[in-house]
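Lab notebook page, bench 4
Experiment: in silico fold of construct C2
Operator: M.H.
Input chain length: 70 residues
Purpose: comparison with the prior construct
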Amino acid sequence: MTFVQFISLNLIYLVTCLPIITIGVATSSLFEVTMRYADEERGYLIKDYFLAFKDNWWRASLLMVIFGAP
């Protein structure tokens, strides 16, 4: 079951990872969810991804603009 959830998570990441627009927030959200899972803070991978996506939206987008400019 976890294997299927990780496949689904990666597919959702590919769909939400639009070049230049949401690549920063999608990557930071995926990183946050996988690190929580690796630290054995088990939860809902898909639900937690969308919550992290919403929480990281402005911060990750700003950092993508700052670091993506050079």
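Observations: The chain has one domain: 2-68. The helical segments are 2-16, 23-38, 45-68.
Next step: discuss at group meeting.
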